[in-house]
Amino acid sequence: MNQPAWSDWQAVTGWSPDAAVLAETLDGGQAFRWNLASGSPDVWIGHWAGGAVQIRRESDRLLWRGAGSLNAADVQHYLGLDRDWGSLTDSLPWRSDPHLARCLAAFPGLRILRQPFGETLLGFLCSATKQIVQIKQMVALLAERHGSPIRVAKGPGAPPHHALPTWAQLATIPEAELRSCLLGFRARFIHETALFLAQRPGWLEETETLPYAAAKARLMELPGVGEKVADCVLLFGAGKLEAFPVDTWVLKSLARRYGLDGWKPAQVAHFGRTHFGPLAGLAQQFLFSWERKHGGR
Questions:
Q1: Using CA atoms, how far apart are residues 26 and 35, in angstroms rounded to an integer?
Q2: CB of 227 within 8 A of CB of 266?
């Protein structure tokens, strides 16, 4: 049987980042399922919601094509093309904050992806004490070993495509099998969360629609979900831009640039939401990206 082919290339309207900003957006810690295509250094392949998408730059524009269940509306939503990121970024307090201004200038066009809520939760449950490359490895193994295949035409030697396992699928997998995906202690959190969700149909969907504070409180009922993971899930999976995740890079950034040395993560998060305002999560992504690239200088 012939496998379904990739769709025709289509233009991404409303966003034309340079190569560095595109890489930072897709592969800078928001999402963990984007990789450069083998043999095609300008083509990114991503997976979400049971489908696959390729994105490439051509001159000063982006093109995309899809396979599986994803269509143009899905891509538009995922890439945030329904939000005016230029206006949102301009409304940040960069005029009175020279470091924030420097971060914005370094990553023009950087934006927040809008990923599926449940998949975002799974990705960030894998993130505790791990670097991006390690999180991507764990997530890839979960997809390859326990996710459903995505039917798409492949060239010789090309790896197969798989969706992430759903939470319903994860609820049927023993913790020991999850550990074989290099999850370590995170396997218990994922296993217990899957069982929790299996007993509460619609819990995740309802949580996604709640106001920020209420949604965060509910997420923190889940095993392994603390303040940072909850804020990441709400920022990158629910579009709640007031969420301000505090990880090692953000702690370093605010200690070095804002004099918050010795502050605890909860104190730094409160400062971030107060100083940067209702779009603190957007500011956070610029701070995070700048610190990763330039923080050692």
A1: 9
A2: yes
DSSP 22-86: HHHHHHSSS-S-EEEETTEEEEEEEEETTEEEEEEEETTEEEEEEEET--HHHHHHHTTTTS-HH
Q: Are 224 and 125 in contact (CB under 8 A)?
A: yes
Residues 6 or more apart whose CB falls under 8 angstroms from that of 142 comprise: 122, 126, 164, 165, 178, 181, 183
User: What angle separates helix 227-238 from helix 212-219, to the nearest 10 degrees?
Assistant: 130
At 189, the amino acid letter reads F
Residue in 178, 215, 190 with CA at minimum distance from that of residue 128: 190
Which residue type, as a one-letter code, is found at position 289?
A: S
Rounded to the nearest 10 degrees, the angle between the axes of helix 132-146 and helix 117-125 is: 120
pLDDT digits (tens, 9 = 90+) for 50-66: 999 999 998 889 999 99
Question: What pTM value is reported for the model?
Answer: 0.94
Contact call for residues 48 and 116 (beta carbons, < 8 A) = yes
Count CB atoms within 10 A of the CB of residue 192.
14
| 198 token code pair | 């299996």
Is residue 1 very low, low, confident or very high in pLDDT (cuts 50, 70, 90)?
very low
Question: Could you tell me how many residues make up the chain?
Answer: 297
Concatenating the DSSP letter of every residue in the chain gives: -PPPPPPPPEEETT----HHHHHHHHHSSS-S-EEEETTEEEEEEEEETTEEEEEEEETTEEEEEEEET--HHHHHHHTTTTS-HHHHHHTSSGGG-HHHHHHHHHSTT-------HHHHHHHHHT-TT--HHHHHHHHHHHHHHHSPEE-----TTPPPEEPPPPHHHHTTS-HHHHIIIIITTHHHHHHHHHHHHHTSTTHHHHHHHS-HHHHHHHHTTSTT--HHHHHHHHHHHH--TT-----HHHHHHHHHHHS-TT--HHHHHHHHHHHHGGGHHHHHHHHHHHHHHHTT-
CA 5, 71, 169 angle in degrees (round to 5)? 85
